[in-house]
Amino acid sequence: MKLLSQRLVPLLTEESMPGRRGARLPVGPNTARPQLPASLQRRNAPRLPEVTENQVVRHYTRLSQLNYGLDTGMIPLGSCTMKYNPRLCDEVSTWPEAAHLHPDQHPATLQGALRVMHELEDWLKEITGMDAVSLHGAAGSHGEFIGLLLVRAYHESRGEGATRTKVIVPDTAHGTNPASAAMAGYEVVEIPSTKDGTVDLEALKATVGPDTACLMLTNPNTLGIFEDEIQGIQKTVHDAGGLLYYDGANLNAILGVARPGDMGFDICHVNLHKTFAVPHGAGGPGGGPVGVKARLVPFLPVPRIKKAQTSYHLDYNAPQSIGKVREYYGNFLVHLRAYSYMLLMGGDGLKQAAEIAVLNANYLKHRLLGPFTMPFKSLRKHEFVLSATDLKKKRGIRALDIAKRLLDHGFYAPTVYFPHLVDEALMIEPTETETREELDAFADALLAVAQEDPTVVTSAPHETPVARIDDVWAAKNLVLTWHELHKLKSTPPPQPPEKVLERPIGV
């Protein structure tokens, strides 16, 4: 008998039998039934599975056992900082005193929540070296967009809004940087990296000018390399009249050690769902607070949280503000989680988290060098990018094949093919929350894959319920419902996927 993790889970529609029910609602003269207008009543019964309650419970329980998450094992996705979230922080966010608040309540009844957010702003100011922070950002990319609106407002206040039309990004930038700049109406200009994997200062000097609005940069960058020419970078941008924007995606590497504000950055967003242990991914709420230096404070979104003696209030009096950027004033329960995490860690604990994240990454990097190569500088911070080019040339094994085969070894795969300037890239970030034993197990798995029979690796995964799919076919044949899937299965395309399962699981 196959293990549950290797079994396919049938669809509820496939388990359906006419007449089966999980519960039968009472029908009689005393039963209250809603009276709907005829125009809103169905002519035909909905096409729902007819199954027992037991079948439904078992179906979703089996699907849940196929899920992989941080409660199951390590997720080494580079640049995503998928670190373990303390349960206590989640527990605090469920307390009725917090979870049952409503933002439409009068501020006099929200003093505790306003205090939490005000103090969180102060702590983030201290951590980033900024002069003020707004918590309105709903995610990292939203924080970027807010930051670029601040850039525009600043230049417009100086009469330069129409001329400063370009945002510069390095070729190591996160994909959201150019996307956010384009959404804000800017022209995106990319500059190359040096042979060391850092910003080419001479290329930057040749690019900046009176049309430069800002440079978007993360430090350490996406390769995990610290931009040691940051003082020259900031001087070049500022001398041209531009602003320097810090993408906080990699802040986890420098907590308590270095601050964006001290490096010369004017604007900075922080990913609470990366750096401060708020649950990350799955489409849930995030947090992208934005910090600024003093000259940009007048443009921050409203309302601002202000303290007057011992009470807190919401202040909308900001004539130069970019206005509201979302409903209310941020995701409060996300703020509460981050606030709780900072209380648990303290300043020394946050610094130690960064130090261990860097230690873990470098330990893992040294274990993996050999079958994998690492272009650019060898000194890395919290993440590193390996290349599988040698394996591809010698054994025909690509980064994608390695990622798929790791699933058979029980590990989630690292980020592959990013950043784009590394051929056959494997981008790995272990974070500070993994033990040495877990790091060793992951390294052992990767090294084992590199030595396996290429035919086994290139056809992986073998132990998962769903085999490898044809990504090109899947992109061209979008399946939005199970009914559409069955239609596609009944009329297969001329060139079907390499392996097509009879019963793919979950959507």
Layout of helices and strands, plus pairs?
Layout: H1 12-15, H2 53-66, H3 87-93, H4 96-99, H5 111-128, E1 132-134, H6 140-157, E2 166-170, H7 176-183, E3 187-191, H8 201-207, E4 212-217, H9 230-239, E5 243-246, H10 260-263, E6 267-269, H11 272-275, E7 290-292, E8 304-308, E9 311-315, H12 332-368, E10 384-387, H13 389-395, H14 399-408, E11 415-416, E12 425-428, H15 436-451, H16 454-458, H17 471-476, H18 482-490
Parallel strand pairs: 2-3, 2-4, 4-5, 5-6
Antiparallel strand pairs: 1-7, 6-7, 8-9, 10-12, 11-12
Tell me the distance between the termini: 26 Å
Name the overall outline: globular
Spatial strand arrangement across the major sheet: 1-7-6-5-4-2-3
Mean pLDDT: 90
Biggest sheet details: 7 strands, mixed
Q: How would you spell out the order of helices and strands? A: HHHHHEHEHEHEHEHEHEEEHEHHEEHHHH
Q: Could you tell me the number of beta strands?
A: 12
- Strand content of the residues, in percent? 5-15%
Question: Over the alpha carbons, how many angstroms does the gyration radius reach?
Answer: 26 Å
Q: Which blocks of ≥5 consecutive residues have pLDDT under 50?
A: 1-5, 493-507
The CATH C-level name of one domain is Alpha Beta
> Class by helix and strand content?
alpha/beta
Assigned CATH architecture of one domain: 3-Layer(aba) Sandwich
Oligomer: single chain
Q: What is CATH's topology name of one domain?
A: Aspartate Aminotransferase, domain 2
CATH superfamily of one domain: Type I PLP-dependent aspartate aminotransferase-like (Major domain)
Total of helices = 18
Task: Determine the fraction of residues in helical runs and give it as a percent range.
Answer: 25-40%
